[in-house]
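Usage

Read records sequentially. Each one opens with the input sequence:
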Amino acid sequence: MIQFANRLQTVQEYYFSKKLQEVRQLISEGKPIINIGIGSPDLLPPTSVLKAIQDSLQDTGAHSYQSYQGLPEFRQAVSNFYQNNYEVAINPANEVLPLMGSKEGIMHISLAFLNEGDQVLIPNPGYPTYSSVTNLLGGEPIFYNLEEVSNWQPNFEALEKLDTSKIKLMWVNYPHMPTGADATKETFQKLIDFGKKHNIVIVNDNPYSFILNEHPQSILQIEGAKDIALELNSVSKSFNMAGWRVGMLLGKPEFLTEVLKVKTQMDSGMFYGIQKGATKALELDKDWFTQLNNTYKKRQELVFKLADKLECTYDKNTSGMFVWCKLPEGKTSEEMIDDLLYNKHIFAAPGTIFGSQGEGYIRFSLCVSEEKINEAINRI
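and closes with the structure output:
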């Protein structure tokens, strides 16, 4: 018999991959499912971005292999974007590494920094890929709990009590997914201080900072952050380009050089036209975000009404494209999700897929039309 790699025993199929098969089966049976669980933007990218990729297709070399470091103009656009929106100076020559979506960066960074048996600090609740990648590489996830009572900020007193001798990386994600909580400047400063004190690389995964957020932040705004921190960012959420798979890793050259060693074994460069389109997106002015957030704000208000119908509580002062809802006392996440799916034909995400701290919560996405959200409200 063929024996598969032992590492596969450490992970399961991604929840949404498995659950959506069930959703598709219900749809095939004629059930009118409203999918309000997935954070995949349903709006179009800017028209100027679509034109930029179209216009690029006849350029000389457009269909050849591209540099692993990306087009110079793309790296410059990233640098300008960080300066204009975060007031962070980034050297386009050696402090930007383009990625085929920031998700692949989680694997690249982990491969570059982790040996088997190394430990990784992972938020609970948090993005499941942090732990699955750690497990695949033979690392050990060390979960640090985030709680609503402290607005989902790390508990540094608890972190300082840990044995940090084997901890190499700490994953941070602000604006936080799934809760939508923003980091404070104090949190970012404490994270940098913690990383320097214990020689732990802090990685902030930052794809949501422009969605329903008037004050976008980067961990690299903190003085000295580049000494110990990396940041992942993306055009997926900010410009409705999730399927384009364009992300970037930012930080000091010594770190990026090591990550590049991994990346060069994994792909052969990003398609030229995709980079030209992403460059145009990063050059847009802030009117784009104003228009985008006007749409998301209307949807958010409707999701609040949906949550009210379910007797859930929520924080209105959050960022990102989700609404994180606390269930009434006595109801579990899985029970609520199945009740909604099978009895109301509404699919949402159970908080438990993001960790044990997600029990008692469910997550609604804003990536669905006002018409469909209103229909969901009517069904409830």
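Summary fields computed downstream for this record:
- Residues 287-309 form the longest helix (23 residues).
- DSSP finds twelve helices and twelve strands in the chain.
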